[in-house]
Amino acid sequence: MSPKGASEKPVRFEPEPARLLPWESKGLSSKVTRPIARAVKPLMRGRMLAGFLALAMLFGAVGGAGATIILLGGFGPNGSDLTTQIRQTLVSEQSAIVAVAEKVSPAIVTIEIVLADGSATGSGVIYSADGWIITNKHVVSGAQEILVHLQDGRDFDGTVYGIDTLTDLAIVKIDATGLSAATLGKSSGIRVGQTAIAMGSPLGVYTNSVTSGIVSALGREITTESGRLSSLIQTDAAINFGNSGGALVDSSGAVIGINTAIATDTTSGGSTVATGIGFAIPIDIARPIMEQALLGVKLSRPWIGVRYVSIDLRTAKANNLPVNEGAWLDGDSTSPAIVPGSPAERAGLKSGDIITAVNDIAVDGAHPLQDLLVQFSPGTEISLAILRDGERLVVALTLGTRPNK
Length: 405
Fold this sequence. Notes:
By secondary structure, the chain is α+β, with helices and mostly antiparallel strands.
């Protein structure tokens, strides 16, 4: 029965059309031709500070409501025990973040670059005590000079050792020893919902800032001005302009990703940063080139030379494929599935083949083909499990070197 005065007919609201979000990398620069460029003006700083103050006030209000809920939940025989447990958990989480900040901050640097028509700043992570730093490619792209600022106040000239041909990463070297280096974790073991802590230098002036949140999702794919990036970690830990190249760490202080991009909404004609949608390149993807730099070799990525479609239930049904997971080698006359002269051609792969495993590890949604290949160095021989016309084969393939984009 409807309340008095209410309509007997349900009111229908048409859903609002979904809005597409572009993605933006976070350099800070006075350069106006780059999508990542953001000039630091007094008015902008004021607005940003006002925003932070408003957020702090909101957090205080939420905290107050939370405290009320805890108190309300405290009634009854076990109420005070529950309240104590909750408080202890909160204190423990806060203590962990404090400990992480103290442990990792000395390894976070601010990178200032001089461009042909301005300057820009970003962040970086020291991963070796003798001056090796991982950062984003878009942070150092086009740099004529690089200055690296350490947490202890020292400044060093930096040089770009190498640029990654696969992702938005770069290695910078400074002439220093005895530095505090970050501990590298394993991104393969992280789970959605676990603590994520972002560290960097937002806006280039708030150096060694720390924000916390959770891992919101895994395996995200986006397109930025640096190209398509896949297998990214999504987090709601606040990431701002200037955080590019900074660290995403877990609750133990181990680096699990390199902060790279944030979502922006331009559907209203402006450019509004979407709250709580940031992305980091998993450290497992960054690790191979970090190790190559330590060995003094040129940065390179493995390559087999195929075009493929990742198979899921929808793809399998639409194309009448015999399996629901794997990498289906598919192309056309202008973009063949097998690149001529490639390692794949030399190994005998054919258009229509489905790669189902790499070195006995299944190719699936959790382990895309590219993620399985990226852990190897060029020149390594691997085995590929192939499904061809209903027949299962195992093919040996020697990885080539990925060409520059």
